[in-house]
User: Fold GDP-mannose 4,6-dehydratase from Ethanoligenens harbinense.
Amino acid sequence: MKKALITGVTGQDGSYLSEFLLEKGYEVYGTIRRSSVDFRERIDHLEGNSCFHLRYGDLSDSLSLVKLIGEVRPDEIYNLAAQSHVQVSFDVPEYTADVDATGVLRVLEAVRVCGLEKTCRIYQASTSELFGKVEEVPQSETTPFHPYSPYAVAKQYGFWIVKEYREAYGMFCCSGILFNHESERRGETFVTRKVTLAAARIAQGKQEKLCLGNLSSLRDWGYAKDYVECMWLILQNEKPEDFVIATGEQHSVREFCRLAFHHAGIELEFAGEGMDEKGVDKVTGKILVEVSPDFYRPTDVVNLWGDPSKAKAELGWNPTRTSFEELVRIMVENDMKKVAKEG
Assistant:
């Protein structure tokens, strides 16, 4: 039985990856941080599984990582833990750097200290935000990086330190450059979940309107449940390489809004431009979506679009098993049920 260690196991990706690996017959260990508030709702259903184990550990604490990796001696490590919110990284840049940059180094060094550099394969969750102020579209493994936030800069260090350890020490460590991947388990502060929850609440008369930032921002949105399969495939590859994980399709925040409200039973039409643009209910004429300067970033990435050709060709991965339209429908249906229970 293979052993996998997942940092960030309580997150969206960690929960889906845990389910995927358990189905593959793995023994799964997940790291959690000590907190007075329980954030385990995404993995509650797994805690009775005899092959699923939780251990305390933190990317900001190298000793805890050395101890944990030395005890578990995993065959595979999936480093998913991060301060993963781009906007928040402008507010807590030092913490973001400590976890998202130096934290990756701590994982790699812990593997070496424990003498597992020849046996343990490591997956690093990288990000499309590396491309930032994009220099070409779509973006592939050869596109130059131009990070445009403290989060992206920290993640770029993580990417390069993985590459350095691969070349310097012959370690099987790889980065998956993940483009935006969403699901019904996405955190409620992320824009897609904010939209689907608002659509559900407005449809059920529990919210008046939704305020967003740049409606013209373009993203490559996929389903997180599909993306964890590609993470696994990267570590099953014959040689350690980095891969773009994306759908190859692009949509605007505006399109996401229109489709989300449609699945909630409201047809939107947009009028105006820039800060004056509004989303209006076609039936009632009521303004339901507005643009607010509060949601603009100091530097904003507006055009992310991934090219998954390498992952498709070399790994046999299907990036569009779940279509964009189906993804939005899944999220809205989940949030319609959630809102109905709120009372």
In short: The CA atoms of residues 199 and 307 lie 30 Å apart. The two ends are 45 Å apart (CA to CA). The longest strand covers residues 121-127.
